Amino acid sequence: MARNKIALIGSGMIGGTLAHLAGLKELGDIVLFDIAEGMPQGKGLDIAQSSSVEGFDARMTGVNDYAGIEGADVCIVTAGVARKPGMSRDDLLGINLKVMEQVGAGIKKYAPDAFVICITNPLDAMVWALQKFSGLPAGKVVGMAGVLDSARFTHFLAEEFNVSVEDVTSFVLGGHGDSMVPLARYSTVAGIPLPDLVKMGWTTKEKLEQIIQRTRDGGAEIVGLLKTGSAYYAPASSAILMAESYLKDKKRVLPCAAFLSGQYGVKDMYVGVPCVIGAGGVERIIEIELNKSEQKAFDASVGAVAGLCEACINIAPNLK
Ligand code: A3D
Predict the structure, then answer these.
(1) Residue 11 labelled as part of a binding site
(2) Region 5-144: CATH code
(3) CA 266 to CA 190: how far, in whole Å?
(4) Residue 236 and residue 242: Cα distance in Å, rounded?
């Protein structure tokens, strides 16, 4: 059987890390695409030279022409600009929307059968625009955000409880970042929900609130420390998990920005919800019942995403 082909559209900090991880996991042959000449070629060559040391077989190719992504099974999109200190994700909207138009056209022409994972910010609006620009089926275009947000939540919870990250499951809904909705009652340590752990004295309500806020601000905390860009290791790991679930038909249940056509009462928008990712793309969207306060937080998150989509339509009326 021929190897899968994975196209990385944008070969910056996340793109390079994606290539390295996809190689280490032998997910397929990798094409790094970027508008910067020489950079995807250089990164591809560097990673390819690590393969003999690490012992993996994957062809790494760098290209500046969309023809190079032809026939890709998976496209992971990070093209655009990342945040600098003081910038919000939404400040990136105007610039990255134009980038999504080019990327969408490239995927439509050369990789119309691919499973597309968008990472470019502001995520929920960019994945929505990318699906429209590319014309691919909505179930084959998803946004990566929830896996990262829940990875951050899980990490902080494991630190608080001094237990293995493997025994913590966390559950987030809604838009990426500031408006995300962590669901404490569905987040567990070895199956024990967080509210029970508060009752058992493992932590306090106040500490839990602090952890939730730190999770919401997780991206900004790293931007503030790095000063020159945003997080890339954990975002890359998160997108690779989604790609692997698709390529291996693992049917993992992962929080993704998925196209909603009435689920949760939302239509024609991408919002973070739990999805089953398998060979069919987004095979199922899981609708859970929300209590009053969760519903209020979810509605606020949906409102924030709707505002971003409106801003996109003002710039590109053809998105309507
Ligand atoms: P960076 O290292 O700047 O890489 C972006 C790359 O895109 C650069 O190499 C550019 O040359 C390239 N690029 C710019 N315009 C185009 C174009 N028109 N066509 C093709 N390539 C182009 O950024 P990064 O890798 O750190 O981050 C990439 C994106 O991911 C940014 O928008 C971030 O805000 C976003 N991001 C999202 C998350 C989520 O959880 C959703 C997390 C972290 C970063």
Answers:
(1) yes
(2) 3.40.50.720
(3) 32
(4) 10
Q: Which residue has the tokens 């609130």?
A: 209
Q: Identify whether the C-beta of residue 168 lies closer than 8 Å to the C-beta of residue 189.
A: yes
Would you call 89 helix, strand, or coil by DSSP?
A: helix
CATH 3.90.640.10 fits 146-312, yes or no: no
The model's pLDDT over 103-132, given as tens digits with 9 standing for 90+, comes to 999 999 999 999 999 999 999 999 999 999
- The dihedral through the CA atoms of 61, 223, 166, 77 has a sign that is negative
Check if 176 is active-site.
yes
Q: How far is the CA of 80 from the centre of ligand 1 (A)?
A: 4
Query: For a pLDDT cut of 70, what percent of the chain falls above it?
Result: 100
CB of 82 within 6 A of ligand 1: the answer is yes
Is 218 marked as binding a ligand? Answer: no
State yes or no: pLDDT of 55 exceeds 90.
yes
For residues 258 and 140, what is the distance between their CA atoms, to the nearest angstrom? 9
Q: Are 11 and 43 in contact (CB under 8 A)?
A: yes
User: Token pair of 164, please?
Assistant: 């293995």
- The Cα–Cα gap between 309 and 201 comes to 43
Taking the C-alpha atoms of residue 195 and residue 187, their distance in angstroms, rounded to an integer, is 9
Instruction: Give the domain ranges of the chain.
Output: 5-144, 146-312
Q: Is 152 assigned to a binding site?
A: yes
**What is the distance in angstroms between the CA of the first residue and the CA of the last residue of the chain?**
42
CA distance linking residue 316 with residue 298, whole number of Å: 27
- β pairing state of 115-118 and 267-278: unpaired
303 falls in which pLDDT band (50, 70, 90)? very high
Q: Write down the catalytic residue from 5, 43, 132, 176.
A: 176
Q: For residue 205, how far is the Cα from the chain centroid?
A: 29
Q: Give me the phi and psi of 159, to 5 degrees please.
A: -65, -45
DSSP character string of 228-275: SS---HHHHHHHHHHHHHHHTT--EEEEEEEEEESGGG-EEEEEEEEE
What value does the mean pLDDT take over residues 90-97?
A: 89
Whether the per-residue pLDDT at 177 is higher than 90: the answer is no
Regarding the beta carbon of 50 and ligand 1, being less than 6 Å apart is answered no
